[in-house]
Design a protein that fits this description.
Layout (H helix, E strand, L loop, with lengths): L1 H30 L7 E2 L3 E5 L11 E4 L9 E5 L2 E5 L3 H33 L6 H35 L5 E5 L5 H30 L1
Antiparallel strand pairs: 1-5, 2-6, 3-4, 4-5
């Protein structure tokens, strides 16, 4: 039982850090946009078609095409790409993405905390735990699809916002194994909980 109490305290601390991190990040994004710098793009790289372009320079700067007065550039250095500055219309998008990510993580922590509490109460084989396990499995299974959708949107936005002549995209393959193993594990645990719940019901009826 001591382990369960320690686990719940850890979950409580993580929930607090999640909310605190969300508030601090929101303030930084919405009110202090100049603090966001060197936004690293994930999921792909940008490289020049002519590799000699990078030999005499540290990087290639691509200025924001719709409004050149906005100081925002894509900087390509070897196979790494970053964005210096942040565009006004990106602030809200980044904030919404951050809120969604933090709320999802907070919900996962709440579900884990609820399961630990049910074990403490001596009732782990309940329908709420079974549904919670399956929901978490579905949530993790959706992450790779959401990641792929984000990459497609990201690539489209870059192509329409910057002059990409002489620049090619290099896709980075997404690894599904880190997502697949937890999903399989959660589904297996869910099946075990279902079997345990059925056995408990049969035992209660027998008594």
């Amino acid at each position: 039982m001591k382990f369960l109490r320690v686990s719940r305290n850890i979950i409580l601390a993580l929930k607090f850090l999640t909310i605190a991190g969300l508030l601090i990040s929101s303030i930084m994004i919405l009110f202090y946009p100049e603090t966001i710098h060197n936004y690293n793009w994930a999921g792909f790289s940008l490289v020049p078609e002519n590799e000699d372009l990078l030999k005499d320079y540290e990087g290639i700067d691509l200025q924001f095409k719709p409004d050149p007065s906005i100081e925002s550039y894509l900087v390509i250095e070897k196979t790494q790409v970053r964005m210096d500055g942040i565009l006004p219309n990106m602030r809200m998008g980044i904030w919404v993405f951050l809120v969604g990510l933090c709320l999802t993580w907070y919900f996962i922590l709440m579900q884990v905390d609820r399961m630990i509490k049910s074990v403490e109460d001596g009732n782990p084989f309940n329908q709420g735990n079974v549904k919670g396990i399956y929901f978490l499995a579905m949530l993790l299974a959706c992450f790779p699809m959401l990641e792929r959708f984000f990459r497609v949107w990201q690539k489209h936005w870059i192509k329409t916002s910057f002059d990409m002549e002489g620049i090619v995209f290099v896709n980075e393959s997404s690894d599904l194994i880190p997502w697949l193993i937890p999903v399989i594990l959660l589904v297996t645990i869910g099946k075990m909980l279902e079997m345990g719940r059925e056995l408990k019901q049969e035992q209660d009826l027998t008594i």
